[in-house]
Amino acid sequence: MKFPALALPALVLSGACRPAPIADILAIVDPDIATVVHVTWTTPTETVGHVEFGTSDGYGYTSPTETTSSTDHKATLYGLTADTECHFMVVADDATSEDQTITTDPMPGDVPTFDETMPVSDPDVAPLLLTTTTDLTDADHSWILLLTPAGQVVWYMQADGVAVSARPMGDGSGVYFISENPKDAEANRLVLAKYDGRVQEITIPHSHHDAIEGPDGGWVTLVTTFQDLDGVVGGDQVVEVAEDGTERVVWDAFDNLPVIENDGWTVGTLEDAADWTHANGLFYDPDDDTYVVSFYFTQQVVKIDRLTGETRWILGGVGSDFTFTRGAEFGPQHAPELGPDGGVRVFDNRTAGYGSRLTEYALDTDAGTATLTWSWDYPGTLWTPVLGDVHRFEDGGALGTWGITGNIVVVSPEGVLDGELQVAGSVTVGQVDVIPSMYGSE
I need a labelling partner for 349 at 20 to 30 A (CA). Which of 16, 207, 301, 374 fits? Predict the structure, then answer.
């Protein structure tokens, strides 16, 4: 494949025999990602520099300033769209180059596309959304995607197997996710993918659905284990994985929940085993050092002490520590998230007749009550039996996905549909996160 490149002459300054401060500017499109551009340049003395860039000579975006002085320089331009002319200008100390242009490559034809069925107006949603997609007709791979609020792909990665929840790395340098092998769960693994193309994989047999970065380093994930209880039953553990691959089991469903037959015995996804708990989401609460986990088939959200493995409380299902008031209890559900004052948000899948919804509950641990304080139903009813996600913003607005229908929705603080993307074809969307910048905190 031929990639566009620019080899530009040195910028000539006034003054006899004075060396050009910025020379040998070269820009190329990344060979694997059509929307990423690499820029290199040289200076006669050691300096630090950066690149201003955008879709016009007004720029608007800035790469991080180099941290080490050198005469050889490089910067990577992220956040561009495919087949688009990019303007850029190199800045080195007090010197600047002239405006330059390069056009990104066309998007590969197999990358999923999104339709903007309603423009997003909430500024809290911008500038980028991280999500995953899986084609129902070919579940051997998924796509990890970064989108503009208008649905344009600015970064992508094809992942082997099924990935339903990709999360941004804490340092802003990339994303990570669990890749599930639909033919061999022993080969399931945690994938750490940098935006610059570097990938690291850690095999975690029977890991699935979700992972989060650990509060003390490493990662936390969900792992299915099996027991023979008048037939093989699959339950879940919460497992911490150190950077060297060492695992510590924090909590085990078999030790903490009663094994009661449910829909997972007949419609679960585990091969040759009852899919009893089917954990599908993780959340860490730094306020009291606990994990919050969602279990689909038991229709429960459980809070777990990270250090002791003690079950702090159970919300929903058999053995719930709370009685629901003001509205029906949720379930089955996905994507647990804690809100203000210990409230719990979940994507309530519900049933086809009611449609799925976004919810938030206030918990009163003294009274043992769970009160539905906010919910949002898609206009006209929209149901997804699997997947789904919910987040809320400080202004009361919300962001959610409808899984199998392929919808990403933005809800205004007033509860009105305020933006929507829909993936084309028979494709599902996984969880979604807002990414302020592909340059992390810079």
Answer: 207
For residue 253, what is the enclosing H or E element? Answer: helix 253-256
Residue 108 · residue 34 · CB < 8 Å: yes
Pick 5-103's CATH classification: 1.10.3720.10, 2.60.40.10, 3.40.50.300, 3.30.1490.100.
2.60.40.10
**pTM value surpassing 0.85:** yes
**Residues 314/304, Cβ–Cβ less than 8 Å:** no
Q: What backbone phi and psi angles, to 5 degrees, belong to 266?
A: -115, -30
State mean pLDDT over 172-178: 95
The alpha carbon of residue 237 and the mean position of all alpha carbons in its chain are separated, in whole angstroms, by 22
| Angstrom distance (rounded) from CA 155 to CA 170 | 18
- Which residue bears the tokens 């009813």? 381
- Show the tokens assigned to 38: 């690499």
Query: How does DSSP classify residue 106?
Result: P
More confident residue, 123 or 222: 222
The pLDDT value recorded for residue 138 is: 75
Q: In whole angstroms, how far apart are CA 336 and each of 323, 345, 388?
A: 18, 6, 10
Cα–Cα distance, 222 to 334 (Å, whole number) = 14
Is 2.120.10.30 the CATH classification of the domain at 114-435?
Answer: yes
Residues of the chain with CATH 2.60.40.10: 5-103
> What would the two tokens of residue 368 be?
């043992």
Of 79, 150, 138, 84, give the one whose Cα is nearest residue 113.
Answer: 150
**What pLDDT, in 10s, does the model give residues 249-293?**
999 999 999 999 999 999 998 989 999 999 999 999 999 999 999
CA distance 271 to 180: 14
**Whether the Cβ atoms of residue 148 and residue 180 lie closer than 8 Å to each other:** no
Q: Where in the chain is the domain with CATH 2.120.10.30?
A: 114-435
Q: Between 82 and 381, whose confidence is greater?
A: 82
Strands 279-285 and 290-295: antiparallel
pLDDT at 412: 93
